[in-house]
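### Sample
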Amino acid sequence: MLNVALIGFGLSGRYLQAPFFETNPNFNLKTIVSNSQNPKEYFPNVNVAKSLDEVLADDSIDLVSICSPNSTHFEYAKKTLLAGKNVLVEKPFTATIEEAEELIALGKETGKLLTIFQNRRFDSDFMTVKKIIDDGLLGEILNFEAHFNRFKPVLNPKKWKETVSPANGILYDLGAHIIDQAIVLFGSPQSVWGQSFTQREGSEIEDAFDIRLDYGKLKVTLRSSLLVREDSPRYIIHGTKGSFVKYGIDVQEDHLKAGLQPNDAGFGVEPSSQVGILNADMNGLGIRGTVETLTGNWSLLFQNLHDVIVDGKELIIKPEEVLEQIKIIEKVRA
C-alpha cells in the first residue's frame, strides 16, 4: 500500500482524484494540503497539512499528487522529486518546454515516477473513438475533429484561474486534454497552425481556440470555447471506409460531483442517448448504426501509478508525450 498526499483540495483534488485513492486498496490517502477547506469533512481519516514542506518532511509519503494552481506545478514537482518522492502532476504539466524538459531530466536522475494527470485518455468517448480507429473500422483516417466546449459566460470565481500567467488560459486547461488525445492517436504532427482568443466579456485570459494539426494526408482540427450553449459533436472522424460521429462527454466528473464513487455500480456509464453513429463499409456491405460507448475508467490511471512504483511496469502517461503537448501549445501561442 502506497501512502499518498494531495497538494490542493479544489475540483481536481476533492472530486477527480481523492475518491480514486480512497477506493483503491493499493493506496492510503494519508495527507491533504488545504488552507481554505476542511478535507476531514469529506475524508475523516486524512491528516490535514498546511504546506508542501510538511508533506515532504514525512518519510512515509510515497506519492505526492500536485493539484495546486497551475503556476505552482513546476516548482512543486521539482521540490518533490528532489525530496525523493514520486510525483503526479495535474495538467498542465508546465508552462514552458524548458520547465518540462528540466522535470523530465530530474525524474530520470532521481529514478522516481513522474507523470501527468491526463485523465481524459480514459474517458468513455475517447476510449471508444480509439478502439474504432485501432480496429480499422474507418480505414485510413483522413479527418479527425474534436471539440471540448462549455457554456460558462460568467468568469470563474477562483481568481487564480482568471489571472494572466504563463500557465493559464484555455490552451492549458481544456486544450491540454484534446491536444493530448491527438498525440495519443497520431503522434507528433508535421506542422501546427492555431490561434487562441478571448470571447467572454471582461475576461483577461484566452477562453477559446482553433487548432489545426497537419499529419500529411491526415488533417486534425481541435476547437474549444466557453460560450457554446448548443453543443456540436464532440468527435467527427472520416476515413477511407467510413465515418464516426459522437455527441456528449464522459460522465465520470458529473458522477463524482454527484457523490458516486468509482466502485459504485453504473459509475462511468454514459446514457444511451450519447451513443455514437458509425457509417462504414464492412465486408462489402454498407452499415450505418449506433456504437455502444465503452465505460469511462479513470481508475486505470491510478492503478498504473501503483503498478509502476511497486512492480516496475510500463508507465502509461509518459512525460515525454506531454512535452509534445507543451510544444504544440507554445506554437499556437506564438
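Residues 319-333 form the longest helix (15 residues). This sample (Putative dehydrogenase) is used throughout the tutorial notebook.
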